[in-house]
Specification:
about 230 residues, alpha/beta, Rossmann fold, 2 domains, five-stranded parallel β-sheet
Length: about 230
Amino acid sequence: MEDGAVTLEERDEAFAEEWARRTAGADAVVFDFGGVISVAPDTDDWPVYGYCASRGVDRKAFDAGWRSYRHLYDGGFIGFEEMYRRTFADAGAKPPTREDFDALVRLDLEGWIRTLRTDTLALMRRIKSEGRKVGILTNMSPDFYEKLFVTRAAAYRALADAEVVSGLEHLYKPEPEIYSLMASRLGLPPERLFFLDDLERNVEGARACGWQAAVYPPPANPRNLV
């Protein structure tokens, strides 16, 4: 390393210091998962599209299936395989095989947790060191939560004072009820909470419930923790 060069750890700490300052008016900071704790896949060039197209589900049909069924999956109303069976059927494609499902788990689900944000972990630790609370509020299916999130994001979960997961509660961001549930679990009034999400609609949903909130920026320094 050249003299005077900033280390990756120093970048993370500088990011954490800045966002701790921005959220300083809150007694708890609540984090989304995709795009905030993890580096979200690049959905402009997502390998899932190509794989599905090779099975007869083009981008238009895939997007229609996403709009129709992804929220049911994230809400815990249908499973991963059922979501893709319906999408393939709507597109007039042959039903997905066991090999298809294995590939889709790797390309779709694994992609959402493959790279975790060390700058977010540094921020969570900074907030806890200040005596404030941390929450995790996410639209996430039960099977993703149980099979991937619980184990691979253990370092983040260990810092959380409360979690609210859509698939376990059958609630979604930006519905008001999911923010109210998070506030209840943290034991704080909405105005003392600060929400960080990568999507403007979820940030606006929190603000409508009386929270402080901001759109969280892309990773300053993405690194795989696994």
